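Fig. S4 source data, part A: sequence.
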Amino acid sequence: MRACLILILIPILVLGYANASKITVGPKDADYSRIQQAIDNSSQGDIIEVQSGVYRENVHVLKTLTLQGIDSGNGSPVVDAGGSGSVISITSNGTIVEGFNITGSGGCGCGNAGIKIASSNNIVQSNIIRENKYGIYIQSGAENNTILSNDLLENEITVSDSGRNNRWNGSVPAEGLQGLMELISGPRVIGNHYSDYDEESEGCNDTNQDKICDKPRMIGSGPGRDNFPSVSSMN
């Protein structure tokens, strides 16, 4: 009986995500002008594309979504919380957040952050996270999140990870000639760039000049660590 129920549910779930919609956010000629409006009116699995512009709001991701910043001509979209709360809070599982310039969290040591994660199996990649209380803050109980290819710049506390099995580096697909080379050498593995760990005086040596620090960047007091911290900005 249980096996039959699983077989019935699988096509329903697949069909639901196959019907995912693309929603646009932008200053003009978009579905919504604010990111939170788009999230509130979205469905599970939707893709929300945010165009260039400055969005002064606190964003709460309460559903499984792809939240994607798009350079529509004026750079990555900026999300600015104006000094209050966390800029982007992720409380849904399986969410993707990428392509944003994230700044202006509140100053509370209670976890105000550029990106605050209180859920599991999310991907946070290719963002610029600048001048927040915490750059990225992962709450206790949040696990199996992947954080890679982000620039964490001039945050008061760069990262805090109280969760489990969160990955601070990973492989990314390459294109063209680099993609062909990966068939021989394997996929390229990258981490993140940290402004408090990109100079020799901070412990980041690059003796083989591969643009990766020779030693991992520890995440707080551990056990999390980024094995491939970048010497320079990635976005």
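Fig. S4 source data, part B ends here. The first strand starts at residue 22 and ends at 25.
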